Amino acid sequence: MKTTNFRELCQEYGISAKTGYKWKQRFLERGLGGMEEESRRPRGHPSELSEEVVCEIVRLKTAHQHWGPRKIRDLYGRKHCGEIPSESSFKRVLERAGLTVARKRRSRETGGRLALGRKAQAANEIWTVDFKGWWKDREGLRVEPLTVRDEHSRMLLEMRLLEDSRT
After folding, report:
1. What is the pLDDT of residues 81-111, one digit of tens each?
2. The model's pTM
3. Hey, what's the torsion of the CAs at 91, 96, 99, 104, to 10 degrees?
4. Complete DSSP assignment for 105-125
5. Rounded CA gap, 17 and 152, in Å?
6. 7, 24 in Cβ contact below 8 A?
7. What does CATH list as the number for 51-96?
8. Where are the domains of the chain?
9. Distance (Å, rounded) from C-alpha 49 to C-alpha 89?
10. Whole-angstrom distance, CA of residue 155 vs CA of residue 124
11. Whole-angstrom Cα distance, residue 55 to residue 103?
12. Under a CB-based contact definition with an 8 Å cutoff, are residues 60 and 76 in contact?
């Protein structure tokens, strides 16, 4: 079917008129090379850091090699007025520049917990003793509860409030 109406032609090929006009314009501007698929990635970013800011971040990091992104950002904020990039931006810049070192992950075995490696089969066979973390009471004093629990039933047998976990 031949037609001189561009919208009908687009409809015949199953594309919208807007898409048809886009491809037509690209062909007129660049010829057959304009028909190739283009990247959909944005060419820029509205909050992209300027080259001067990136250089300053790298400069501060090389002067303070043992500092992380948070401290470098605080130092940058003291030197520069106005809007300061986010901590994640500082981290991203330092990672791209190869100025970060990944933290060593602790193995689970090196914790302060003792374990027998077996589960209780009956009540009162194994008791667990544990500090459950601290909080502040109504008077603002630190409270550290020590709990004794039956592992099989998970029943709390005793709880004592201690001044600190070294007691």
Report:
1. 888 999 999 999 999 999 988 878 876 654 4
2. 0.42
3. 70
4. PPPGGGSS----S---SSTTS
5. 71
6. no
7. 1.10.10
8. 6-35, 51-96, 123-167
9. 8
10. 10
11. 24
12. yes
Nearest CA to 77 out of 67, 87, 68 is that of 87
pLDDT digits (tens, 9 = 90+) for 128-150: 888 878 888 889 888 888 899 99
Token duo for residue 148: 């004794």
Question: Which tokens in the block code for residue 60?
Answer: 């501060």
Tokens for 131?
Answer: 């500090």
Do 34 and 26 meet the contact criterion of CB atoms below 8 Å apart?
A: yes
What phi and psi, each to the nearest 5 degrees, are found at residue 159? -140, 125
- How does DSSP assign 8-29, residue by residue? HHHHHTT--HHHHHHHHHHHHH
End-to-end CA distance of the chain: 92
Among 117, 125, 116, smallest CA distance to 153 is for 125
Q: Please identify which residue in the block is written with the tokens 């130092």.
A: 75
Which helix or strand (DSSP H or E) is residue 59 part of? helix 51-63
The helix/strand/coil state of 85 is coil
Residue 125 corresponds to which tokens in the numbers above?
């066979």
Query: C-alpha angle with apex 87: 71 to 58, nearest 5 degrees?
Result: 65
**Pairing between strand 135-136 and 156-162?**
unpaired
